[in-house]
């Protein structure tokens, strides 16, 4: 039942990041005129099928998180409005684990998340390679129920568990030159077999301005629905920036670099006309290939209007005072 529903949503979707890549790769491979050297999605499915045969296909285990501070009232929501856990963990974008929505859950078992450490580099007084447990230890875990709006015009409501990114960054004493924060996903094609293809330039990279990073809404999530993150959702630690399109919320982070210059980011590098550095949810700025005025909440049958800053304007609109949000999209 649920599977059927998810698939029908997918068919009705606007042309997505996924379709864009498929089309781009089709163009690439036809340019190579039948050569088997064509890179991209066909290759991805065959190399994954090969691995599938040898690896055991149990889902990556999650464990319950305790002592979590419940979501404050402004981020609480009626339980019935939360996206069913099954949907949030089986309809994913994580191109390192495949480019269809079903691939990440299927391939998550390749990703090993213990041990895990995160490098904190650049404009900080106390840089270091920090084991995940050490990074988390000083901070209480908090629940935050946030809307997630993908640039492909679908959305969910997800109860995350994590720590505000700002609290974590402060531990390392950022210098006055720290104007931006750059993030990187793990690069290891054995664990993230999608990296054997050129779907994007790896590792996946994202970035925020320092004030965006310090905003209390910005979360480093380590769990969802009361448990640790499943691999497909970016285990063991990922970013959640609820007022921006989903692609800013980078998964499976191994490096955080504070720096003076605006960082290069994967989707912006892939196609800067379609995916901006800021990527604030904005119903008034269309994607070049579709409108962003409405969205399909996963599980709903009808579309709903998309809200400016995904409904978080009171908290974040001030960060962009004086900026032209059509040009800096
Ligand atoms: N490393 C990495 N992070 C990523 C992606 C990805 O492909 N790779 N996809 C992004 C996109 S497009 C979205 S919408 C969200 C989806 O998060 P979810 O699958 O947990 O809902 O993850 C983002 N983070
Ligand atoms: Mo997305």
Kindly provide the radius of gyration, computed on alpha-carbon positions and rounded to a whole number of angstroms.
19 Å
What is the terminal separation in angstroms?
38 Å
Can you tell me the CATH architecture? Alpha-Beta Complex
Please give the CATH class: Alpha Beta
Summing up helix and strand content along with how strands pair, one would put the structural category as alpha+beta
Main sheet attributes: strand count, strand direction, barrel closure: 8 strands, mixed
CATH homologous superfamily title: Oxidoreductase, molybdopterin-binding domain
Count of all domains: 1
Helix content: 10-25%
Structure description:
- 23% of the residues lie in helices and 20% in strands.
- The longest helix is centred in the N-terminal third of the chain and has 15 residues, at 17-31.
- With 329 residues, the protein is an alpha+beta fold.
- It has helices at 2-12, 17-31, 41-54, 85-90, 103-107, 132-136, 165-170, 210-214, 266-270, 313-316, and strands at 68-69, 117-122, 128-131, 141-149, 154-164, 180-185, 205-209, 219-224, 227-228, 238-240, 253-259, 294-297, 304-305.
- It has a single domain, classed as Sulfite Oxidase, Chain A, domain 2 (Alpha-Beta Complex).
- Molybdenum atom binds at residues 93, 150-152, 246-247.
């Amino acid at each position: 039942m649920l599977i059927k529903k998810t698939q029908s949503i997918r068919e009705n979707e606007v042309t997505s990041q996924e379709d864009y890549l498929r089309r781009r790769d089709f163009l690439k491979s036809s340019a190579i005129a039948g050569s088997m050297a064509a890179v991209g999605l066909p290759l991805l499915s065959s190399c994954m099928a090969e691995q599938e045969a040898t690896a055991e296909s149990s889902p990556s285990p999650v464990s319950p998180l305790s002592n979590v501070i419940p979501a404050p009232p402004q981020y609480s929501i009626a339980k019935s409005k939360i996206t069913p856990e099954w949907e949030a963990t089986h309809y994913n974008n994580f191109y390192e684990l495949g480019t269809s929505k079903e691939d990440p859950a299927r391939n998550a078992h390749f990703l090993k998340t213990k041990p895990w450490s995160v490098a904190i580099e650049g404009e900080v007084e106390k840089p270091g390679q920090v084991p995940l447990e050490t990074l988390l230890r000083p901070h209480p875990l908090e629940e935050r129920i946030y809307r997630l709006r993908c640039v492909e015009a679908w959305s969910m409501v997800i109860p995350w568990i994590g720590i505000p990114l700002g609290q974590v960054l402060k531990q390392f004493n950022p210098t006055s030159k720290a104007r931006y924060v750059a993030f990187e996903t793990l690069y290891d094609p054995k664990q993230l077999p999608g990296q054997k293809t050129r779907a994007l330039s790896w590792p996946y990279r994202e970035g925020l301005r320092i004030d965006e990073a310090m905003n209390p809404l910005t979360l480093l999530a380590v769990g969802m629905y009361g448990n640790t993150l499943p691999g497909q959702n970016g285990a063991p630690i990922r970013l959640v920036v609820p007022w921006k399109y989903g692609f800013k919320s980078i998964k499976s982070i191994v490096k955080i670099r504070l720096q003076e210059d605006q960082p290069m980011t994967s989707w912006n590098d892939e196609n800067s006309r379609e995916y901006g550095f800021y990527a604030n949810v904005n119903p008034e700025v269309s994607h070049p290939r579709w409108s962003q005025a409405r969205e399909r909440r996963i599980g709903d049958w009808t579309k709903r209007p998309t809200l400016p800053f995904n409904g978080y304007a009171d908290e974040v609109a001030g960060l962009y005072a004086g900026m032209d949000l059509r040009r800096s999209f």
